[in-house]
User: Fold these one by one.
Assistant:
Number 1:
Amino acid sequence: MTSNHPKNSAEGYAERVLQGDRRALTRLISWAENGDGRFPGALAALYPSLGRAWRVGITGPPGAGKSTLVNELALAMRREDLEVGILAVDPSSPFTGGALLGDRIRMEELTGDQHVYIRSMASRKSHGGMARAGVDACDVMDAFGMERILIETVGVGQAEYDVMGACDTVVVVMCPGAGDGVQAMKAGILEVADVLVVNKSDLAGAERLADDLSEAVHTRAIRSDEWSGEVGSSWTVPVVLASAGKAQGVDEVLKAITSHRAMLDSRGPNGLEDARRKKRVAQVRRVIDEELDARVWNTDELGARVENALAAGSTAYGIASEVVDDLLRGAAFGMRSKES
Ligand SMILES: Nc1nc2c(ncn2[C@@H]2O[C@H](COP(=O)(O)OP(=O)(O)OP(=O)(O)O)[C@@H](O)[C@H]2O)c(=O)[nH]1
Ligand SMILES: [Mg+2]
């Protein structure tokens, strides 16, 4: 296939991604990660090819066994001959030391597989950029042809929750011991779960935790039915016992993910498409926030105005609302439009 675009242009890289060039895939994800100005052009060229991948978020407290489960899920998906992308967002375990994907031997089984692409992404210096970059990375993998994308985050901060919010199915992994389910519920982790996995079922306390979670899920399902007025229509989050470390219960986790997908598909245009549109809106909002932030503060003029207003005795709220009003009226504060 001959290209109409220079090889190293944004469009050229996009074309190569669509042709299955893994180096181009890696490059574009780096652009997304670094907020490179060439990324939007590349993504625009990829946009028509998005939507095939099923995005599965895996989150939960540190050490619950997320990476081990991601590992096993990826192997199970490979047995179904699916192309699998893996994104570890801000992994607490470094690449070196072999702990990124749990067990080293199993990890090597994946890294040697041409149908698996593994990428880890560090949180960026600029706040809030991680969720945007994580979704961008998934978009690139989707366009590349990944049929399943597994995204691991440690379920703690807003950015991690935002990444999960962009997934089609969210799996929350917990395990017996430190913190347990009560803590998880307090942390609001249940709210993002489509599937709950109690991992380390080989350890004491796993079944009790699963029972507790089932009970909590049941209570919540009834409540949301009452609120929405659609009794019986909501998804009841399944609680699955597994031992990823012993490769047990992984098929059940996969089945729960598949059921969740089938449920969304069965809702027709109001299901998957609707859900994805809402997620896309959230991504646009993140991009707007990031761009506003960069463009508003990329000048000394506004900073000087704030300092002067403070010196004159204005409050933070007063200054902020004046500045926002002025911005919305079109004041530029020395900012330049992106094109100039
Ligand atoms: N007993 C038992 N241990 C497990 C199981 N699954 C994983 N582990 C162990 O739990 C530890 C943490 O596993 P990881 O997969 O790295 O957990 P993680 O949630 O990805 O951890 P972070 O990314 O660091 O938050 C490792 O020592 C695993 O070997 C299991 O089913 N049973
Ligand atoms: Mg991990």
Note: The chain has two domains: 1-49, 50-267.
Number 2:
Amino acid sequence: MIRVILNGACGRMGRSFATLCENTADIFIVAGVDENTKTARHSFPVYDDIGKIRVPADVIVDFSVPAALDRILRYALDNNLKLLVATTGHSRSQLNDLRLASEKIAVFKAANLSVGISVLSRLAAICADALTDFDAAITETHHKNKLDAPSGTALMLKNSITSSGPPSRAVCINSIRGGTVTGKHEVVFLGNYETITITHEATCKDVYALGAIRAIRFLSSETAGFYTPDDLFMTNSGN
Ligand SMILES: NC(=O)c1ccc[n+]([C@@H]2O[C@H](COP(=O)([O-])OP(=O)(O)OC[C@H]3O[C@@H](n4cnc5c(N)ncnc54)[C@H](O)[C@@H]3O)[C@@H](O)[C@H]2O)c1
């Protein structure tokens, strides 16, 4: 049994993840944390500060806001817990802190936990490598409540393109916010008289919760280190 502390327990993703865990035999949420505990409707206790948790755990799962990172990182280090950071929008210095922490604990950082985005990223890298004189652009669409723009996934895709093809290629990112769209990413390569478009659309946020379950299982057998969805999905793509 893998014991989980869920940070951001009352948000959209926290609720989706908690619901999925109710029917997942090997993962048990021992406690949640949320700035806003008034909306908590969970079978596990939810605290307004991770420091108030007194039960043992194995992994912290974070679906909250970037500002929460410093607190949960300190708790993970102090208690030797593994950490799955699914929150997006962190600063460069916070990402650096995560890298440093991964010398002592296992850290899994994912801008996107769907297997489809992992494959899209690889396809974008193949195109970037083969089509060096094409222009590239990314369009991402999300629901109107998403806080960060561009999305962490769009930034990750941009990085795949610039690290596989010419690093100087400008990759424009267009961000659209509106309605209830779970998450859509479109990568376009535009050449002379031809265009390649690769699109991924998540139709339900449970896809990310399912990815989190897989990442937790992966983390549970890893030692200190920095892991990403490539480590999870590159070797097998089943469920
Ligand atoms: N990696 C992925 O696959 C993936 C998928 C979907 C969303 N996300 C990311 O997950 C994050 C959460 O998304 P969401 O849609 O659930 O957002 P949300 O706004 O619905 O939920 C965020 C929750 O965090 C809580 N919170 C705020 N400050 C906090 C703090 N200091 N400590 C603990 N909790 C705090 C809020 O009260 C809220 O309940 C976002 O960064 C989003 O981009 C990642």
Note: The mean pLDDT is 95.
